Automatic annotation (TrEMBL):
InterPro entries: ADH-like_C (IPR013149), ADH-like_N (IPR013154), ADH_Zn_CS (IPR002328), ER (IPR020843), GroES-like_sf (IPR011032), NAD(P)-bd_dom_sf (IPR036291). Belongs to the zinc-containing alcohol dehydrogenase family. Its EC number is 1.1.1.1. Residues 17-353 form the Enoyl reductase (ER) domain. It comes from the Eukaryota. Keywords: Metal-binding, NAD, Oxidoreductase, Zinc. This is alcohol dehydrogenase. The keyword Metal-binding applies. GO terms for cellular component: cytoplasm. One of its GO terms (molecular function) is alcohol dehydrogenase (NAD+) activity. Its cofactor is Zn(2+). The keyword Zinc applies. It comes from Lodderomyces elongisporus (strain ATCC 11503 / CBS 2605 / JCM 1781 / NBRC 1676 / NRRL YB-4239) (Yeast). The lineage of its organism: Eukaryota, Fungi, Dikarya, Ascomycota, Saccharomycotina.
Length: 357
């Protein structure tokens, strides 16, 4: 017998038009299909890509408007469909960006489901985690340990796995230098910690805020060097000075939403270095000088969220206390205010909404 009483309606934040009013209102509780879980979302991280989706910066139209955004949910399994066998009522669960994949394409068959062309995304194609109850494919849900920090694990399910996968993609080895642009933000603050946990040495780049605020923040997380791009006369020169005699860092991880920062990051790395692109400034382009890129054998690659196994590894780092997620908890009804703070660049760390408020 299901010990959870499932209501017929729930609170959610929805938008019916791109960049239109955000409505905090009651909507029906969804019913799981045969292969789906019904999750009572307790907390949801607020990702910058949620803002991009809401503003229509990933395309002028989205399917299924009105839409509930969000893709960093943590909660409890309260129901599931008739085909689900590997979950129990009461299990703790994480809901991430990838909500469903086809399972049959070459990428899915090779456990690289992030490249599945038929994937469906929480808060993009399917109502996401800015609601009290959501549905997720049982194969894409993440089983969480019983003693996990439920409010703080939500951002790990997107920001955490995204930067962890990006660091793996950089191929940087323990003891080598990695530059993280946008280091004090939600993605960057986790990237600094995962880099340290992987044995990498971190040069953190960010700017603005109160004097020394961001420098103290990222150094407390494990960065060895902080460069304030708003005060530095030559950021590239400083990176090279701090990263030894090799002519730059071994890798650069760009999680900022600045096109200029992305362009500049190519110059941060030494010969045979790797630039990993994660941040998604709207309609941005990158121009690569061919001759030095070829002669210096620079690799530039994009990295997009993480697979189920990447998620397992990233959550394990967090569960073992190697990663702390600096969060501020607010009510779901305050989501519009959080979006405004994002637009103003005033967020340090990560905001998490409590769906009960």
């Amino acid at each position: 017998m299901n010990r959870f009483k499932i209501p017929t309606t729930q609170k959610a934040v929805i938008f019916s038009t791109l960049n239109g009013p955000l409505e905090y209102k009651s909507i029906p509780v969804p019913k799981p299909a045969p292969n789906q879980l019904l999750v009572n979302i307790h907390y949801s991280g607020v990702c910058h890509s949620d803002l991009h989706v809401y503003k229509g910066e990933f395309g002028k139209t989205l399917p299924n408007l009105p839409l509930v955004g969000g893709h960093e949910g943590s909660g409890v399994v309260v129901g599931f469909g008739s085909n689900v066998t590997n979950w129990q009522i009461g299990d703790l669960v994480g809901v991430k960006l990838i909500n469903h994949t086809c399972g049959t394409c070459e990428h899915c068959q090779q456990s690289q489901e992030t490249a599945c062309a038929d994937s469906r995304l929480s808060g993009v194609h399917i109502n996401g985690t800015f609601q009290q109850y959501c549905i997720v494919d049982a194969l894409q849900a993440t089983k969480l340990p019983r003693d996990i920090n439920l409010p703080a694990v939500g951002p790990i399910l997107c920001a955490g796995i995204t930067v962890y996968k990006g660091l793996k993609a950089s191929l940087a080895k323990p003891g080598q230098w990695v530059v993280i642009s946008g280091a004090a933000g939600g993605l960057g603050s986790l990237a600094v910690q995962y880099a340290k946990a992987l044995g990498l040495r971190v040069i953190a780049i960010d700017g603005g805020g109160e004097p020394n605020e961001k420098e103290k923040f990222v150094k407390d997380l494990g960065a060895e060097v902080y460069i304030d791009f708003t005060k530095s006369a030559d950021v590239v020169k400083e990176v090279h000075q701090h990263s030894g005699s090799g002519g730059g860092a071994h890798a650069a991880l760009n999680v900022s939403t600045s096109e200029a920062a992305i362009q500049q990051s190519i110059n941060f790395v030494r010969s045979r270095g790797t630039v990993v692109l994660i941040g998604l400034p709207a309609e941005a382009k990158i121009k690569i000088p061919i001759l030095p890129t070829v002669l210096r054998q620079i690799t530039v690659k994009g990295s997009y969220v993480g697979t189920n196994w990447d998620t397992h590894e990233a959550v394990d780092f967090f569960a073992r206390g190697l990663i702390r997620c600096p969060i501020q908890i607010v009510g779901l009804s305050e989501l519009e205010r959080v979006f405004k703070l994002m637009e103003q660049g005033k967020i340090i760390g990560r905001y998490v909404v409590d769906t009960s408020k």
